[in-house]
User: Fold this.
Amino acid sequence: MLPEKFIDNMTLYYGKEELNRFLSVLDKPMYKCLRVNTLKISPEEFLAITPFKLEPVPWCETAFYYDQDVNPAKHPYYYAGLYYLQEPSATLPASVLPIDEGDRVLDLCAAPGGKSTRLGEKLKGTGVLVSNDISASRAKALLKNIELFGIGNSVITTENSGKLLTHFEGFFDKILIDAPCSGEGMFRKSASMITAWENNGIKTYTDLQTVILRDAVKMLRPGGSILYSTCTYNPFEDERMVEYLMNLDKSLKLCDISLHDGFMPGIPENGLTGDESLKKTVHLFPHRVKGEGHFVSLLKSNSENVSMYDIPYSIKTPLKDEYAKEFLNNLNTVFEADRLEVDRDKLYYIPRDIPDVKGLRVMRRGLFIGEIKKNRFEPSQALAMTLKNSSFKNCLDLSVDDMRVIKYLKGETIEGDVSDGTVLVMVSGFPLGFAKAKDKSLKNKYLPGWRMM
Assistant:
């Protein structure tokens, strides 16, 4: 049962006919999709090996609908980080935001990581991705997904936007804000969203959004771009919030977004100014597209001012441990020495283009490579996910239907014709994690929190 106030609002802003079409699909199943991780495999290559029947999502070249009766989260390729499971409409924001190699990118409200993983793909290991979520508990899922995708040039923080501003003023080339919102576009997904809407109202979220936008615009470098999106329909959080953003920085101008079948352009009349450029924003409705409700806007700064913040980070404790150095020297992967930092016996590879983050709540800074132990070095799960079969000499590459794959993912000991020592366990040429081999018996080192249940 939808709130009467919501029905009245939808009628007011979109008309009775649009409302009726919207209501007609609410009892129908939601669409589901997976998004291919292009850091590991191309969409074409994935289509050649996938066991699932897939259909392209029109607005995201790496996303595909899958049938309701399958569960891709239980397939070994999911554990290899070959794809992310995402609501189809939610793939649009990170697809629209243009990312260039070397960019400094901020995903301000990032958990659980659907948009961050796509942004990390587009950076192709260059520049830096700062993924932030104010909730430390939600950021745990964000961290796992970043590491699962093999994204090493990332910094994960759990701060409010004002605290980030104290470190990143004028720093970012691109900022994505998928803002906390009233969630009207998710009503079909969960009845709890309806309850939250009734309890919290819209003003709770518009107040929060104005604070986030006020801080975010100050973190943008001159000439940079901001992607603002919500999963709601009301103009207070959509068109009018875009107007607020443009008022904060007069250099920000709306950019065109490619219109696919079913996309509805923004409605100037639903704003306060009647600005015709609001037509460059887009609404997604479940009766118009195969996806849930979403709103997306892209703005670019036309400012020619010079950024005031361009101070690179320098490491504080360089790597000296000989066991760690020996391990890295045996990898067919280049690690630049001046980016290797030791913090409390943990070794990290720090993105070059990042300022000092001291004073921020940081969950991860760069790629966690492993731990320095007494007389040995223990490589991390995160490192394993960045490697290729050519990166590591001692590999056990299993076919996807080999029962040892499932045993390994469940944390069990397996057998394999490998040399003694650290082994990279793979499926179809893609890494899953490490094991320790002795006389062909592989002691499982797969991260406990990632194991298949």
Observations:
- The two ends are 36 Å apart (CA to CA).
- The chain has a mean pLDDT of 95.
- Residues 128 and 435 are 30 Å apart (CA to CA).
